[in-house]
Specification:
The protein has about 425 residues and is an alpha/beta fold. It folds into 2 domains: about 5-40 and about 305-415, Aspartate Aminotransferase, domain 1, CATH 3.90.1150.10; about 55-300, Aspartate Aminotransferase, domain 2, CATH 3.40.640. It is about 40% helix and about 15% strand. It has 14 helices and 15 strands. The strands form 4 sheets. Strands 2-8-7-6-5-3-4 form a 7-stranded mixed beta sheet, with helices on both faces. Helix 1 packs across helix 10 and helix 3 (about 65-85) runs parallel beside helix 10 (about 285-305). The chain is globular and about 70 Å long.
Length: about 425
Amino acid sequence: MSAREYVRLEAFVDDIRTHFPCFSSPEWEGVHYLDNAATTQKPQQVIEAISRSMRRGTAPIHRGLYPLAETATQGYERARKTIAGFIGARSAKEIVFTQSATAAINHVAEGWLKPRLRPGDEICVTRMEHHSNLLPWQRLCRAHGAKLRFIELKEDGRLDFASARLCINPKTRLLALAHVSNVLGTVNPIAELAAMAHEVGAHTLVDATQSVAHLPLDVQNLGCDFLVFSGHKMYGPSGIGVLWGRHALLDDMEPLLLGGGMASTVNEDIAQWRNTPDRFEAGSPNLFGAVGLEAAAAMLMAVRRHALYDRIEQLSEYMLDSLLCMPGLRLHGPASPQQRLGIYSFRLADIHAHDVAAACGEMGVCVRGGNHCCQLLHECLGETGSVRASLGIYNTADDVDALVSALYYTQKHMQ
């Protein structure tokens, strides 16, 4: 990323919405987008980065010896280096590009933990996990006679440390947990839990899909061993995610996908893998996804150096206060803004979550209704589903006010 581009990104935060083309589109007139926990809108910087890469021409990464291919490879590897800096990795070689956070978790499950799991071993997760950070561990436990244990929640939606101390024990091989709940908005104390896991010889995987767009990430300070996130939830393109792992662990991990570009030597009976991270990126690399992700990361780094980041926190508090004051609304998760991010799930009276989401949609307010791929959590909450509203860096108080108005209207006409 050039100095000129960074200066341009600093100017980006002066009027953030103008850099998202969707908000000036006629189709978006009267639309209030509050479904950012599902996916985010894309800024012009990301769109231009992908378009520029396409306009300059497509060439095979790590394969061609002509200038066009070398330029493509340089762009791809520059993106890897930028992402390493974005999360505090010690080396760009610790960054593996995947299809998604889901794919990254499966890489760790099948390539790292599966060969090490024995009958009687345990995997520890939390009651708030997204299915992406639950189903791979369920399958491993069934196949290997291991046990899946759950850290339970307090009534306010925070993790119960007494439960964590019982779950994390010398039988634990892996602790897998979300940095931030995609339903409750709870910010989990990763460093403390990772230290607890390390004390018994266990490793820690962090699902950072909901925190990556909101919180500065530093894998050294978090103390985890693996971390995953997706591009499309941090204003980047879909179809690309990141797996970070400590270099020694990645070197001792089997690749999940086998194919072109990841083997150094192949004979009739066996193949030898290339070094990390190439061994985990079989097939044709996603150049356009990588450069788009790099632009999104650069944008977020610029935003975090600016007072706009404080405004986002203030908007989160405003939304929390607005929902807590609404009669007939049961908010899930911590009531303190210091213990959660801008993700708010709730039940509105006795109206089904899908009906609330549909009614809000008719009034131009985009929220999600359902179990948000967290069925176990909703069972714990005594709900079949919930309505979720979630903030992004481009949201305003008008969006919050529109949501509250839509909820009042829905409650009045649907009860």
